[in-house]
Amino acid sequence: MKEANREKGKHSFIAEARREQIIEAAIKTLDDIGYVKASLAQIAKNADISTGLISYHFSDKSDLMNHLLTNLLERSTTYILERVGKEVTPQKKLNAFILASLAYQGTHRERNIALLEIIFNARTPDNVPYYKLIDDQEDLIMIELRQILYDGQEQGVFGEFNVDVMCNLIQGAIGEYMLNNSITKKVDLETYSRELTKIIEKTVLNSKEENSKQDGR
Amino acid sequence: MKEANREKGKHSFIAEARREQIIEAAIKTLDDIGYVKASLAQIAKNADISTGLISYHFSDKSDLMNHLLTNLLERSTTYILERVGKEVTPQKKLNAFILASLAYQGTHRERNIALLEIIFNARTPDNVPYYKLIDDQEDLIMIELRQILYDGQEQGVFGEFNVDVMCNLIQGAIGEYMLNNSITKKVDLETYSRELTKIIEKTVLNSKEENSKQDGR
DNA sequence: TTTTTATTTGATCAGTTAATCAAATAATAC
DNA sequence: GTATTATTTGATTAACTGATCAAATAAAAA
Which of B123, B166, B174 lies closest to A34 in CB terms? Predict the structure, then answer.
């Protein structure tokens, strides 16, 4: 039975619940003590189970980390895309994108730390670090952002700029807020959100229509 | 003698050379296999010395990593500040800042990877990760960037924006280029430098004078 | 030169790691 | 009910970790 389920990629109700529990414990562990010290024993302790049980439900430590990574990416992607999807114009979509990204980071700090710890530490069997591996093609968030910028240009609302570079700039400005401790101390999330959207708006808008569009929320 | 030198923070010629060699080997090791696998044994192998010799010259593994971190920060800071210092106007200083930062990353990829590995993995004895520790006050680079933006606003060349947020945005856009593999594949460093400076210039410049200043290189 | 100090090695130690596995227990099928 | 399968434990293992240290060697001082 187990084998059959495994082949279909399914698990029993109990197994699924246990896997979920282990993943949550892993998030907490990574947030608490970081990837380097996050041994199976520590994760097991956080989940109040034996170490062997982790090995029973995940073939490997890297298997666990991969499932955790997928889980974390899915949840943040869903959150952001849901909010972007409610807007219609590129300008509003872009705003929603920035605000949702920052809001998610603010409300799920623990998950973002865990995500960070994995991306900067986990490696493939060939020893390629995950941070060198993240590919645009697979990253739905980046695809969405690219599309928003592209649409805005097509519709003449956004001015001329290199879409890839602008994409990277926006992603960088969002991601940097969580990393840079000094900005967190000086500027709260709400202010940062407001100022960043203001700056980005000014940057992407077509300057020829700037005056007429500027208050156009 | 050794003790006396230690107290003054000095080492013999041989010791200094050996420490330098170990640090270089550590950079290579971190770049090759990452922080998690970068054991003293591996670093020693890369330096063609015994493991005990590292312990002789550095009190600790964290002592080694701290010296390495300082070394890496110093070198990149010197490089960037030197180039910024040659310019006079805020506008040109800002351009030089961005170009120098990106150029350093491009020409010293190995060092930047090592820097990244340390910042995202090393922890204080109280288990505080370094990436939560980096403080604006100590970071000469950030102080310089802030000053440039502030001066530009004072002189009326730059428009109104939150300096801290703009600082963070610029740092993010620079740092993201190295991290995001997809942008590296799509846009080469030269193009990215050109497009990023163009975008940032448009963003910071005082729009009231935009027309007269735009070609004002 | 001899003596003292600095440098280097490699073996060793105690601690941790991920993974394995027989045995116990719980759940489900028959 | 019994038989079978799924889940869980905790002890065990082999590999590796950072650190220590006596002994060897090289360098410097006397």
Answer: B123
Cross-chain CB nearest to A120 (options B120, B187, B207): B120
Q: How many CB atoms lie within 10 A of CB A171?
A: 21
Distance from CA of B202 to the nearest CA of A (A): 7
* B68: exposed, middle or buried (Cβ count in 10 Å: 0-12, 13-18, 19+): buried
Give the residue on A whose Cα is nearest the Cα of B137. A182
Q: Are B110 and B28 in contact (CB under 8 A)?
A: yes
pLDDT in tens, B73-119: 999 999 999 999 999 999 999 999 999 999 999 999 999 999 999 99
Instruction: Determine the Cα–Cα distance for residues B59 and B55; give it in Å rounded to an integer.
Output: 6
Closest CA to B217 of B201, B203, B204, B206: B201
Domain annotation for chain B: domains and CATH numbers: 1-58 (1.10.10.60), 72-213 (1.10.357.10)
Pairwise CA distance, residues B140 & A30, whole Å: 30
Query: Is the pTM higher than 0.85?
Result: yes
* CA neighbor of A114 nearest in space, from A17, A177, A23: A23
Positive or negative CA dihedral for A27, A28, A29, A33?
Answer: positive
Structure token pair of residue A61: 């430590």
- 3-class secondary structure, B49: coil
Percentages of chain A per state (helix, strand, coil), in multiples of 5: 75, 0, 20
